Every structure is written in structure tokens, then in C-alpha cells.
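User: quick one, fold this
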Amino acid sequence: MTSDTTTPTTTRAVSRSAQLQLLTAVTVYVVLGLAAGLFYREFTKANGFEEGLMGQLGLAHTHLLTLGMIVLLIVLALEKSFQLSSSRLFRWFFWIYNAGVALTSAMLIWHGMLQVQDLESSKMIAGIAGLGHMLVGAGFVLLLVSLFSRIRKDS
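Assistant:
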């Protein structure tokens, strides 16, 4: 008799919980991404920012939709196929990755608002944004390690 206490029912319940958690995060990122696009349009218009000029504020919209919605939809499909949530690293991935996306997006918005208003940015903003990017990168590493361990375990 083995000491493994996980049953197929428990594994399915954990996977379903992870899927709902991912879907909730995707929904939040869709709302935030669309709101960031609307904010960009209205804030630049209200401040007389020349149309067509590239700035950090416009990048928040695409970062939220791509890193938030699209990446997590792919992770949701991987969860459905490989039950990544059965790996201990999956929980770490989820929270570290999302903290990185949130931090990076917040700094894009902050820096972008300063650009639109023609105010000087600080090195602090760049440093915090860099930390956000590092967290996103660490999240990707945790996701890949989790995926590799699940694929090895299944074979």
C-alpha cells in the first residue's frame, strides 16, 4: 500500500479550482486591459497629447491583454490538458506571475501619465517596473518547470 493520499477525485477538484482561478484572473485582465485602453484614449485627449505619438501609457492596454488574458488562457488550456495545479510550483507561478504583471502594468500607467503631462519620470519608476518584469520572468520559469515535471510524470 502506498502513502499517496491524492485520489483522482481530489486531483480533479484541485484542477477545477485552478481552472476557475485562472478564468477569474483572465476576466479581471480583460476588464483592466479594456479600461486601460479607454483611459489612454481619454487621458491623452484631455491633456492634448499629440495623436500618434508613442508613449508608455498606450503599452499598458496591450500588456494587460497579452500578458494577462492571452497568456493565462494558454495556461488554462495547459491546466486542462496536464493538470499543472497538481505541481506545488503552480501556485507559486500563479501568484508571482500575476504580481509581476500587475506591477509592470501599474508602472506603465504611472510613467505614461507623467509622459503625457510632460513631467519628468524618476529612476524609481524604472526600477519598480524592472522588478515587475523580473517577477513575470520568474513566473514563466516556474510555469515551465511545472509543465516539464507534469509531462515527465505522465510518461
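User: anything notable?
Assistant: The helical segments are 8-46, 56-82, 88-116, 123-154.
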